[in-house]
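Quick illustration for those who missed Monday's session on complexes.
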Amino acid sequence: MDIFTRLQDIVTSSRVSNDPAELYCYSSDASYIKGTPDYVVMPRTTAEVSDIVELAQENRIPVVARGAGTGLAGGAVPLCGGIVLDMSRMNRILEIDIRNLQVLVEPGLVHADLNRALEPYGFFFPPDPGSSEMCTMGGLIANRGSGMRSVKYGTVTDYVLDLEVVMPDGAVIRTGGMVMKSASGYDLTSLMVGSEGTLGIITLARLKIHPLPEARAAVLAHFNDLEAAGRTVPAIMEKGIMPSACELMDSTTIKAVNMYDANLAIPDCEAMLLIEVDGSPCSVESGAARVAGCCRELGAFNVTIAFSEAEMKELWAARRLAGAAVTRLNPGRTRVYIGEDVAVPLSAIPEMLREIRNISKRHGLTIMTYGHAGDGNLHTGMAIDTRDREQWEVLKKAADDIHRAALRLHGTVSGEHGIGSARGIYMNQEHGGALNVMVSIKRALDPHNIMNPLKVGLE
Ligand SMILES: Cc1cc2nc3c(=O)[nH]c(=O)nc-3n(C[C@H](O)[C@H](O)[C@H](O)COP(=O)(O)OP(=O)(O)OC[C@H]3O[C@@H](n4cnc5c(N)ncnc54)[C@H](O)[C@@H]3O)c2cc1C
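Prediction with flavin-adenine dinucleotide bound:
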């Protein structure tokens, strides 16, 4: 029996396709990387995933898990063809267990749907990606993602208690349990978090949840000196204040955001910090005042504090526009996600900001910088005419310079978007001998390399 017929037998014919039009839809994610699968399959159960992986193993066919395809590093793109497993049909919340501070979810659940379901209980799942309304929990876990509130609450790594994983031979394992801590055996949960579908397919996730804070406030501070804004970030924390979010926008981003929505009218300045504090109402009030004081000490002007839900919503809306706004500066050009996710130690933020400015000048390319400065994670936005080879070359060189500058400053090439196939070339420089250990683990668990081949710089 051919592979297509066997796949139809496993999931019924309505949930498998080899129609070129359908396959095309699965040939890219939100990055610039492309690769077409031979089959797309939409499983509904762990047993189906296990049967599909077993079939792939028997026939040495690549298997690539896909959540929502919002990844920015080509992680879900099938570079060697094979089967794309579209996990979006496995999207149920199976348990909300408030007594044990946890939930059990399927991997295709959209991130924002989890928080909507938790809100009536007064709880939330803190890692908060900008793609919350689109990305899936499986993709977020597989990419070790995070977001605006990681500065205080940590990344997805800190919230995964247990995963059900279909291994490359089709075996189904559980990596953890319901307990809040365990010292039992190797930490396979952490191994799977961030493995980008190269070690197995996540079919269930048990996640910790957190009570919603009673109150929040946001401090908005404008600076006439970009590096002063960068210096303010660690200075706030040195004073013993832990913001729940700390976002930066440089002058180029501010210009782009103002062009996108003129009503925002952000003052023309070199940089803006948006710093959120949360907790009890009185701790929020004093925390916000201390943050505002610290910003002023470091040279900020026009420092304001927002306490109302409506005001804060508006501020966050402006921040969330940043990613899309870059094309306003470059009409007719397309934003290409490349070199967009470096992270550096907090003390190196001013230097990294300076490096990006210099790279922009050197290559004559407009680069906007914004992002989660509170955890050293800076996003860059660049746009080109993607039909122009020369512009591609300039873009790639600029991105390479950004990656290498971050590594020189003891940073990483990816704070949250993952390696995929976009950043594999830097793995050796970043990890040295540890990359050999990663390769050994991959070979031991997936000797025929069927799980998402050519990713994470493992080959
Ligand atoms: C506008 C925008 C804003 C963004 N903001 C953020 C942000 O703030 N923080 C952040 O972390 N990311 C952000 N991202 C990147 C992206 O949304 C995240 O990486 C997200 O976690 C990917 O989820 P997904 O469901 O789209 O996964 P996909 O792109 O489909 O897949 C990502 C990786 O996960 C693997 N995978 C997916 N499901 C499974 C599974 N069930 N088992 C095993 N492997 C699996 C895939 O093979 C692939 O390697 C943003 C993206 C966009 C477009």
